[in-house]
Write a structure and sequence with these properties.
The complex is a heterodimer of chains A (about 55) and B (about 250). Chain A has 1 helix and no strands. Chain A is mostly helical. Helices cover about 75% and strands about 0% of the residues of chain B. Chain B is globular, with a radius of gyration of 22 Å. Classes of the chains: A mainly alpha (about 55), B mainly alpha (about 250).
């Protein structure tokens, strides 16, 4: 598959896949950790003063 | 002036709390659109015919060119955000700028890496200091510099203005990248898709390329919105911690 240049084509797709997936996983993990930290602070009775937040 | 006299403006919809509500609804929809575009784009790309000159290496084009376009588009989004910071001092503009920088750096690295993997079998070299490649490398250095600058300040609001000014200054690299193939002799060919006449590419290559470009754009907008949401949360956490730090301890004289 992909002829004599498969060793260039396949790594290109793998690198792109890993980079995009890695970035997505990192952003999701960051979101979870921040939500947890916010929850922990709010459970400790620390709440934001803003009216609508 | 009372609040009753203030007319509702577009800015009312751009406050961080409303943004969070909007983002929570929009992200799943954007993710589904991204997944569909990526699945269709990959299927079309991997089923494209062999090019008469490049053979199957033309398949690298379907991920290299969108990455290069997104490297420039991310910077353009950052520059528009920078104007939002400088002109209106809007906090969400700064949030947008900071959130786009790592994504832009990722697309630039992908453009350079996949370009190198395409260049070796086609040009016989992994790297050449030609105008297009060098200017894209400069773009990567600008991205890394801006990410470092954003992290150099403890207080995000203090970094907002210098970051916006530096971002706008760096925008000079975008037209240089775009027109480098016309201004200098480079290994890269002149524009094949964005031309005044018709694209210099057959539909069997053009359509997968455009779908992959749309997929990459959808990836950018999904991840950008997710990152912006994280940045807003991070600022809320910081505000709460500052509140605690400022509060006098019980029993203190």
């Amino acid at each position: 598959m992909f002829g004599e240049h498969a060793s260039f084509i396949i790594p290109s797709y793998i690198i792109s896949f890993i980079a995009i997936l890695g970035m997505t996983v990192f952003i999701i993990a960051q979101h979870k950790s921040r939500k947890q930290e916010l929850k922990r602070l709010e459970e400790a009775g620390i709440k934001r003063r803003a009216k609508h937040d | 002036m009372t609040t009753e006299t203030i007319k509702p403006s577009i800015w009312a919809f751009a406050n961080p709390t409303r943004f969070m509500g909007f983002a929570n609804k929009a992200i799943p929809i954007l993710a589904i659109i991204t997944f569909i575009l990526l699945a269709v784009g990959l299927w079309m790309s991997l089923n494209a015919p062999e090019d008469y000159q490049q053979g199957y290496t033309v398949l690298i084009m379907f991920i290299h060119v969108p990455a290069a376009w997104l490297a420039m588009m991310s910077y353009s989004v950052m520059s528009i955000s920078a104007i939002g910071t400088i002109v209106w001092r809007h906090p969400l503009a700064d949030v947008s700028l900071r959130s786009a920088a790592p994504l832009g750096a990722m697309f630039t690295i992908l453009a350079l890496a996949t370009g190198s993997l395409w260049g070796k079998p086609m040009w016989g070299t992994w790297w050449e200091w030609d105008a297009r490649m060098t200017s894209v490398l400069v773009l990567l250095i600008i991205y890394l510099g801006l990410i470092a600058l954003a992290k150099a300040f403890d207080e995000p609001s203090e970094a907002a203005l210098p970051l916006a000014v530096m971002t706008l200054t760096g925008f000079a690299i975008i037209p240089i990248i775009k027109f480098s193939v016309d201004w200098w002799n480079t290994l890269h060919q002149p524009a094949s898709v964005s031309r005044f006449d018709r694209p210099a590419m057959g539909p069997e290559f053009l359509y997968p390329l455009l779908i992959m470009a749309l997929a990459y754009m959808a990836i950018f907008f999904t991840l950008h919105m997710m990152s912006m949401r994280n940045e807003v949360l991070s600022r809320r956490i910081r505000t709460l911690k500052m509140q605690v730090a400022r509060k006098p301890k019980t029993g203190e004289a």
